[in-house]
Input
Amino acid sequence: MSTKRTRESQARTEELKYTMHQLFRNPLVVLGLVLSVFFIVASIYVTKIMNPNALTNPLGLGNMTLGSLSVNPSIFLNILIYGAIAYAIQRLYGNKWATIAFVAVIFIILYVPIPQQLQAVDPNGPSNLMYEQKLCWNSQSLINWGTQTTSCPASTNYLLGTDDFGRDLFQMILIAIPLDLSIALEIVLIATAFGVVVGAIAAYSGGKIDEVLLRITDIFFAFPGLILALVLAAVLGRTITTLTIAVLIVWWPTYVRLIRGQILAEKSKNYVEALKSLGLSSRRILFLHIIPNSIYPVLVQSTLDIGGVILTFSALMFLGFSPSPVLPELGNLASAGVTYFFQAPWLIFFPGATIVVISLAFNLIGDGIRDVLDPRLRR
Amino acid sequence: MRTIEYVIRRLFLMIFVLLGVSLIVFYLTHGVPSAWDPVTAYINPKMTASQIQAIRIQHGFNQPLYLQYFYWLRDLLQGNWGHAGNEASGLPVTFVFSERFPYTVELSVAATIITVGVGIPLGIISALKNNKLPDHVSRIIALTGYSTPAYWFGFVLQLLFFYYFAVWGLPSLPSHGAISETLGGAVPRVTGVPIVDGLLGGNLTYAWDAFLHVILPAITLAFISLGYLARIVRASMLEVLRQDYIILARSKGLRERVVIYRHALRNALIPAATLTGLFLAGLLGGAIITEYVFSWPGVGQLSLSAVFAGDANFVAYYTLVTALIIIVANLIVDVLYIYLDPRIKY
Output
């Protein structure tokens, strides 16, 4: 029995190696990988170097803490995640040094202290000014309000201008990236896990359970996603947690359908019969053999959905479900730009462009993997 | 016969799905008493307190929530949907919806035309030049499309074609609404779709103005969705090109163009056709973000303000109608599939 297991996992490793090889031949996938690794590393750095006061509201509307939003999980979780990745690298390339290097880099990123430098609140923005007068591109620029113009304080230099609270937009975007990324990853992970379990149960048990679960997903598919999320957000309230739940409720049925189809196809294959005749329990066959063999399309969909989730979540923020106007979230930052659109187009342009690039990075990876894994195009 | 059985089975299942949808909609819009007071939707300001109490009893608002659902369902089936607007003076929701729906139809159809017109050629080029430069370019366009927030792209288009074109002295495109304010009401309302009304009323200026207004929002919607279509066309085209009958057609000595356009394309476009149908159905439900960004007077924008105003009746009506459109479109598409692809049997 144990030799059989080993052979099967060896075959899987071979398959994975081939897939990786195919994948890295595609320049766009490499671009996507580089971009997403960049964003993840940047997120980790930002949460590390961030001034704890960065989110202090300059208008005195109350403080906001970043504790629950941090992308930096507990040490235990880190060891678990990076241990798994290191193990995968070890299996894939069989190279001890690559693994050690990887672990070392991650360790440096996570645990070597960096002096805190980021100050999100601009000290030059006195709070008694009108919002409009805090808008600023850089020290020489004038902002045209039709009848009058306002100028920026001298000796200030902003890479991407300031927002209507007088905060440096570049720094706000830097803070927003980890928030958006961690929320998107959270939503996709939970939705995938939930969808896979429900879909697997539906497909493997069949009959009435299958029918009922399918009809439930049908109900969710009948709503356009954004509308359901909007109504849910309106009912549940405006906090980050409730918005996350709203998007989650919209997202999980996709995975149920996907994994169900995969498992149904996999169930009829010969090896499942063989395993059954060996006397294995059906739970064991399902979770140790069928799901690992049919999970790849789901993972591709998850990768593609990271972008989609960021879009949906930030759209909810943009449309006005933000818990606070000062929350540095990309959609929320962009929504501030609607009011001053023709005077200060950077307010909406740069946060939006950041969303495009993050989302594109994950879509490039997902699309490339889908191409490589497509059985119709394989070998 | 099999097809008819299949359709009947689907219609039967549709009832259950609709009931589930109505249950969710009901609990979302009526299950949170602090957010929405359901009785306001049925009254007008002239009513006395006792009349209001009578309405409360008539519609079962004094009953427990699960019973209220059945009262609500009864009203719904009788066509009594209440009034729109959180204020008691609103018009019937059905009227408000049908006033705005034609605008959404115009925008959806325009966006679908652009999506199909650009997305399908993009997918075909991608498949024919698989893994070469044109494929990569079309992949970038497609993936950028569905990585782009609609509000961002909409504003960028407005900034460029409305604001900067005007600043540079070029002819600029309108950025707000479905028709210029000066032309409002210039032609009688027949269908409610501005372009069609302009043409029917013989007022070409009106039709042209309406056409100019639809360009930017339609491009926004099309850009964010044509990528998906292009990827589907590419995948199905690649699959078809590997089939035996294409090899046969080539070995007969047919020209490549004939092989592709006459033989391969027909089968490759079947998934695209169905996808386009579903896409149109989704848009008919209202492209909320795009309508909001372009102040388009369609149902999507209205639903957004209804959600914020706590207008339970309009939100309920809107979500139910949208769900119905999508369910019916799914059914139509699945049935069409049988005719488009004779290999499929249910």
